[in-house]
């Protein structure tokens, strides 16, 4: 009985209408990206050791990005989206407290720089612009048709809960994300990459919700505070949800320092975390927040049940799944609680404003979650099966060599230890190594060593990085015409 519908022809309004303001906003975004902690990743920074403030960016890409209107959801898996969401999480996290170890002088210097007055000023300046670019197109993706009453909304959400309950018995393989993990060449690597996508949210879990703790209180805020208390383990550190997730990571030999895997967050994963900050940081979106919260609490019951099962299938007894077991249990309670103690009373007290906001947040987050899942499935379908010199790539290379003088292609000469900070191309391309050696990184924990003569396929939209291992490395990136690479996907 959904009365929401997509409006494909809706045009997002421009982010900044006054051109002078647009120029100033772009300059502020670039200045924020060029802060020292956003410098490109160095040779030793594939993973960011012991410094939650170090967040390599690619400020050099920004001048080539169009930042004049909100990004459509269809472009979630792209380099502009990656840059916007990396910048946005940095802006949001200047409000969050990260404490380095006592004796780590370098990390304390990074702490001082991260919370420095100029950095905070820039974060405040760019945050609303980035929010508009990252999320300003979402309301056009969800059009609320017809007149919704409180009773209709309640029935719609109760039906959603009932449907979720019906789906509880579905196995791991019926979930497309989990199926992509199981089907990849190395499910242990794919499962680790999946956990890493959860890290930007779970290692500081419920921080967005905590933004709604201050204020003058009514029963609604007290009900929300009740959920917050559970997320924070009622002040018992070992029971805090982020502590449970740290234990999951540690049990698999993964590092639980926030942003250790910064380079491997996909834009979809960052967007999910940022959306909650967006609707919680801006108090005028409180009702959207409630709708998104209901979607996530209600869908997490089944999702965490299957995630726990998947991890036990892949890693056996070695993995600590308490994080997932706890959510499988408590989110049953949280989803009922959000509906009965937050949504229903909000609608009773605030009427149409609450109904529209709650429904919008619910549908927006559902769309965003589906797009983020797609981003992850596509990454695993490529990276999870990637081998150098796949015989199916050879004809494409031969075709490029035959037309080399005119075929679109980019060539690079790089020196030892030159690292390309992870990024995304808008087009399908090949990587053809002419001379030297490089390591190529298609997902966290996977290194493909490449030597002269090796070739790889890099689809548009897919996150990757590299580092040169020889004195010099020469390589080419022939750009493929649309659909040329389709057979590579089908066979994967
Ligand atoms: Fe939680
Ligand atoms: Fe919860
Ligand atoms: Fe690249």
Q: Would you mind describing this structure in some detail?
A:
The structure is a single chain. With 492 residues, the chain is an alpha+beta fold. Strand 6 (437-443) and strand 7 form a beta hairpin. The protein has 16 helices and 10 strands. It is 52% helix and 11% strand. The chain has helices at 19-33, 79-93, 105-114, 117-135, 138-141, 150-166, 176-183, 187-202, 207-210, 219-231, 241-251, 267-281, 286-315, 322-383, 394-402, 486-491; strands spanning 4-5, 143-144, 409-415, 419-423, 429-435, 437-443, 446-451, 455-458, 464-468, 472-478. One fe (ii) ion binds at residues 423, 425, 464.
CATH C-level class of the largest domain is: Mainly Alpha
Number of domains: 2
Shape: globular
Q: Please state the structural category.
A: alpha+beta
The biggest sheet, with number of strands, parallel, antiparallel or mixed sense and barrel status, is: 4 strands, antiparallel
| E-strand count | 10
Bound molecules: fe (ii) ion
Estimate percent helicity.
40-55%
What is the oligomeric state here?
single chain
CATH topology of the largest domain: Heme Oxygenase, Chain A
CATH architecture term of the largest domain: Up-down Bundle
N-to-C terminal Cα separation, in Å? Answer: 37 Å
């Amino acid at each position: 009985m959904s009365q929401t519908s997509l409006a494909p022809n809706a045009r997002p309004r421009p982010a900044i209408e006054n051109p002078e303001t647009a120029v100033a906003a772009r300059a502020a975004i670039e200045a924020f990206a060029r802060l020292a902690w956003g410098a490109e990743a160095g040779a030793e920074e594939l993973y960011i050791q012991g410094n939650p403030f170090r967040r390599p960016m690619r400020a050099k890409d920004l001048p080539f990005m169009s930042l004049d209107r909100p990004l459509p959801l269809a472009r979630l898996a792209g380099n502009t989206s990656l840059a916007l969401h990396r910048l946005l999480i940095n802006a949001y996290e200047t409000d969050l407290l990260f404490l380095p170890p006592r004796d780590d002088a370098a990390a304390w210097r990074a702490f001082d720089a991260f919370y420095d007055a100029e950095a905070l000023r820039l974060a405040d300046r760019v945050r609303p612009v980035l929010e508009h670019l990252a999320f300003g197109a979402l309301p056009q993706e969800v059009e609320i048709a017809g007149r919704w009453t409180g009773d209709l909304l309640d029935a719609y959400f109760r039906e959603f809960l009932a449907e979720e309950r019906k789906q509880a018995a579905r196995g791991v393989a019926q979930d497309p994300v989990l199926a992509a993990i199981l089907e990849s060449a190395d499910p242990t690597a794919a499962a680790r990459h999946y956990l890493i996508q959860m890290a930007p949210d779970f290692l500081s879990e419920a921080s967005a919700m905590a933004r709604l703790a201050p204020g003058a209180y009514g029963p609604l805020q007290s009900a929300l505070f009740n959920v917050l208390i559970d997320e924070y383990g009622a002040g018992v550190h070992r029971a805090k949800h982020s502590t449970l997730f740290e234990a999951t990571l540690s049990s698999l030999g993964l590092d639980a320092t926030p942003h250790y895997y910064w380079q491997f967050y996909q834009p979809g994963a960052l967007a999910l975390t940022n959306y909650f900050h967006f609707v919680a940081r801006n108090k005028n979106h409180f009702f959207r927040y409630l709708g998104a919260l209901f979607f996530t609490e209600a869908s997490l019951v089944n999702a965490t049940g299957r995630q726990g099962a998947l991890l036990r299938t892949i890693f056996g007894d070695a993995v600590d799944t308490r994080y997932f077991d706890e959510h499988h249990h408590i989110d049953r309670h949280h989803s009922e609680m959000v509906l009965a103690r937050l949504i229903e009373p909000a609608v009773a007290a605030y009427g149409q404003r609450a109904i529209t906001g709650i429904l919008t947040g619910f549908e927006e987050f559902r769309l965003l979650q589906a797009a983020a899942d797609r981003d992850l499935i596509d990454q695993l379908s490529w990276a999870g099966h990637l081998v150098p010199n796949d015989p199916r790539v050879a004809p494409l290379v031969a075709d490029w060599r035959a037309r080399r003088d005119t075929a679109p292609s980019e060539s690079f000469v790089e020196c030892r230890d030159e690292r390309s900070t992870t990024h995304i191309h808008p087009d399908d391309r090949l990587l053809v190594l002419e001379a030297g050696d490089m390591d190529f990184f298609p997902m966290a924990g996977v290194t493909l060593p490449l030597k002269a003569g090796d070739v790889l396929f890099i689809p548009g939209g897919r996150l990757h990085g590299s580092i040169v291992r020889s004195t010099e490395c020469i390589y080419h990136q022939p750009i493929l015409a649309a659909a040329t690479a389709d057979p590579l996907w089908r066979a994967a």
